[in-house]
## 1
Amino acid sequence: MSHSSHPPGFNPIRRDRLQQEAVHDSYKSKGKLPEPTVCPDCGAVYHSGRWQWLEKPQAAHSETCPACHRTRDRFPAGHVFLGGPFLAKHEAEVLQLIKHHETREKAEHPMQRIMDIEKTERGYQVTTTDIHLARGIGDALHHAYQGQLDFHYNPEQNLLRVSWMH
Ligand SMILES: [Zn+2]
């Protein structure tokens, strides 16, 4: 079954392995950020070693966060490929679940955002700023509807491709 082809550097990975592999996304960050730092694009605040939604501090450094960098560069960390007859029949419901999942995750984890949801020949492609969100979307779909869930991970660049076929 080759429902999606994977570019070089991507290997199949079991979900439980992925948990251990996932590292902090340092996309375009030049080493350790001073605290507090505020992203001028989205207003997220870097505090206690992570990006959070906080009230803007009085005196803060300014640096674009990894999620905004990825969005601007159009370079997603996660891809979720959706396809199959079940999807075709329940498109609206499935997309609703995905957006709902993102809203909840983003509220707590500012770096976890959907970049794009595009219709493809086979179904949909969802791109994310963080691999955890891509994995979470795959898990949420599988939990709600079952189907075939696969993960391919690129350890060099910390990129994840999730395929959900149903
Ligand atoms: Zn930002």
## 2
Amino acid sequence: MAYRRYHGSCHCQAVRYEAEFDMSSGSNRCNCSLCSKARAWFLFVSADKFKLLAGDDVLSSYQWTPPGRNDAFLTYRFCSRCGIRLYATGDHPQFGGRFYALHVPTLNDVDREELVNAPLRFVDNAHDRPDRTPADIRLM
Ligand SMILES: [Zn+2]
């Protein structure tokens, strides 16, 4: 376990954040309809490990209730100036309460080799099976 502090931003730099996490915990690609559109690539941090440094006034939100669910599970936050999605927030016991799902490409100071060597999971949320790898991950 090697927790480090990292920094991230949107493309226009209006939104900036810092977060502490262990890169060796890995990151995730998801095949749900929304993640597919956004080419989502995310990693989880608990809310106490995240700090928004700038841009609260330009962040926009999006919520989506997946088929078969009663509520939107996540709130997606993106920059209203440059359109880049930075993270999603949620609250679930499985993730230790309130959490952030950071969009990995918005991180600015991650060591490339460290990221390459960290686990990358493919999750089959398109079939409501986050516990398994989709049958076809070629375009994820
Ligand atoms: Zn921006």
## 3
Amino acid sequence: MRSGARLCLLAVSSLLLLAASSDTELPLQGYSAASSRIQREWETKFRAIPEPQNQRDYMQRLSARPHHVGSPYDKDNAEWMLAKFKEWGLEANIETFDVLFPTPKVRVVELLEPTKFTAKLQEPVLAVDPTSNQQAEQLPTYNAYSADGDVTAPLVYVNYGTPADYEQLERMGVSVKGAIAIARYGNSWRGIKPKVAAEHGAVGCLIYSDPADDGYAQGDAFPNGAWRPRDGVQRGSVMDMPLYPGDPLTPGVGATKDAKRLDLKDVKTITRIPVLPISYADAQPLLAALKGEVVPEAWRGSLPQTYHVGPGAAKVHLKVQSNWDIKPLYDVIVKIPGSTNPDEWVVRGNHHDAWVNGAEDPISGTVALMEEARGLATLLKQGWKPRRTIIYCVWDGEEPALLGSTEWGEAHADELRRHAVAYINSDGNGRGYLSMGGSHSLEKFINGVARDIQDPEKKIPVWKRDQLKAIADAKTPEERKEARDRADLRINALGSGSDWTVFLDHLGIASLDLAYGDEDGGGIYHSIYDDFYWYTHFSDTDFSYGRALSQTAGSAVMRLADADLLPYDFTGLADTIHTYLDELQKLLQTKQDDAIERNKELEEGVFTAIADPKKTSVPPPAEEVPPHLNFAPLQNASAALTHSAERYQKALEKVSSNGELRVSPADLQALNQKLMRSERKLTSTEGLPRRPWFEHLIYAPGAYTGYGVKTIPGVREAIEQKKWKEADEQIARAASALQDEAALIDSAAQALANGK
Ligand SMILES: [Zn+2]
């Protein structure tokens, strides 16, 4: 599902300076020198196994026909992968769930006035692209979980359809009340667009792909280049996943045969208004019919016409009706039992379902995962015995609503909370830089893995390439210094948009998300053109970055599965929490300054004086100046966490001098059990305000950003939404979770000190 948001690696402060890249003399984090040597030998063997040609062959097979949830080829793919895993000697099975998955029955978009035009709503066959003609099996262009509806109304252009865009509309004196909003794709997750439109009184919503964002303004359009052609359409889910993802009928529990299900009418995650995605070829006549003000400069796309806000004479008829059917999901689950600690699980996943043929999203990631599994199977035959249990998962139903991973995570919630060490996700892959996102307790760990993987084109470690890019991209001298001097590259916090969501946000399992990309342009996302032809012409055409992803994620799995001491590190976490706290304080300060400034300008008559009397311009409303908030509990918690992290680090250094790890096996076991709970400590079973499914108090997808992350979300969103009392309460809650985390780390440090 994920799109964009690939690379944003900024490096920071200088904590440790022993980061000599690929220094094979230093023991791996969580290993003694002896066990590290053995581990490195196995990893070296492993990294030689994944084959680009195999990935190419698997992709050709898995993307040969459309394979969305409920389609014959979706099931066929699951069974084929199951057979492959078994052929390699792995223990594998398919777990099924039954979920609500709407598919289109009626789709109409027509311009009724001032002229007549009927939208085609169809992506044409391209002669050069051999799978583009499988129309009988393709899911038509639509947004899954749109409400059914039949509306005729004037049209208003709302830019990207974010809350800020509606504030701008108000200043122009334009309302979407009773209108159909037409938004362009981009800048926020698509599901936010109909949600915000409905909150402002719109009766329908159209989302189109402007060539400025992923079409000819970016590069040559497919089939001449990688970018979206005029009739290309981005399908996708518009479910309110920031409320809860997964099957709408079974929130919080696995959608098994006998699960208790909600009535469809009681479901809160389906949009309130009908919505359809369209191509720019279909959008152009509609946009051309708009009158009213010319849009602000930042709202202009790349179509060869003047963009107007509307409304005017343009009247549009929008009709959407879906088949609201229950469809089966096929999750393929592979289990490699651990030899000494079978009750500690390392979980790895990528989805296999697609909107259509889905070569890039998700098969480029699926095939990397398959080659990893084959690699591990080969090592097992050579005598490798992973200490912990490894579970490989190929999820179904990610595209509609993270269905397969969420239902599996909910069905196995108790076991996962007890046993899971970490979850490692990928979701598609491309050419370019390694992007690393995830829990900051794994920041040092994944930096360590990235130092040992070679970039297939530049022949330098992928970590080094990321670091040099961070130096090149730094916007300030401080950022540049950080990129050079900080021991580890900062990893992105995770919002939502792929299968880590249930593990991290709901179950509190430390998670990572990995992908290569950024040098592989693309505008075929969720269209019929995301297929084998496109991928093998315009993305990672030789699958060398596919091999790099297998090597990266597979090495991470092995290193977590074999470590003597679980390789969490808390100094990076503490440092990150500190930056979040700074951001929150600055956010409040900015809001206060902005409100004071705005009220002053209102008093001075600035807005009325500069308004062009020939245009509509409404002064913004006066703002209540935000009160001061008491950040002290968070400041104290952040300081406590920093101290605990340092104590743990010192205790660890003490027991691991001279390349030894002087902790008895029994003590190690107890310590690992403790450390496994460290991410869980950052959650609360009450969850976030108004969305209790989201239990993590440090990371969550934004209620109004969708994929985009909100860190310390309870506090941040309360400030953004001007809920001051709630902000104070949420500061206390986040602080208490961080204090618990600090106490756990302290007790781990104590255990290390006593054990030696
Ligand atoms: Zn995907």
## 4
Amino acid sequence: MPPAYRLALALGLLAALANIFGGLVLTGRAWERRYLRYFVALGAGFMLGTALLEMLPESWKLDPARAPFLLLGGYLLVHLVEHSFIPHFHFGEETHAGAFSHGHLPLSVMAGLGIHTLFDGVAIGSGFLVSSWLGWIIFLAVFMHKIPEGFTMASVMLAAGRGHRAALLATVAIGVASLLGVALMLLFPLGLPQALPVAAGVTLYVATTDLVPEVNREPGIRMAAGVFLGVAILVGLRLVFQGL
Ligand SMILES: [Zn+2]
Ligand SMILES: [Zn+2]
């Protein structure tokens, strides 16, 4: 196995563990929950920058004719699985217990979020197929929202009355989906010209439609500033490692 593949899988595993850690924050009080919102704000900015400045240009290079359509498709795919089939879903702690009184809803959320996390993994795998720079940057973008993502998954299970064990198992499931996404890309690298723009659309959706609304719910400038800081960190890394 080439070293880049091994690295991609190791980082995919780390991202999956962050999902589980996010669940532990909720069920085991492993960490200060209030730090989560800064991860959401930073992650929103960093992911937005990664999608627009890194993943888009590379996608365009691979297939300029189809990339715009695949990007839009990736965006709409997450809209479909997270917000069309599921009547109630948002990032952050689920406190609307009444929204989950109908039996199978938490499993639908798990399935919807699982498709999104599958593409988190596809994004990391695709990145490493292009360059180690792109792989690392996408990994960081994914990693920043993985803890809030696991937290969200676990809180949906708890709000549905499923208990701590089921909540943790659900975070394991969405984590495994991410790892599977990385492995799929490494097994089928010829799919890169299609997978990268779709993953870019997914990343754009998660940044703008899942994370930014959570940032905007908080009053004051601190959270809003976190988004700019996230973009600034990405641009700073580009300056240092790529010379812009
Ligand atoms: Zn809710
Ligand atoms: Zn994700």
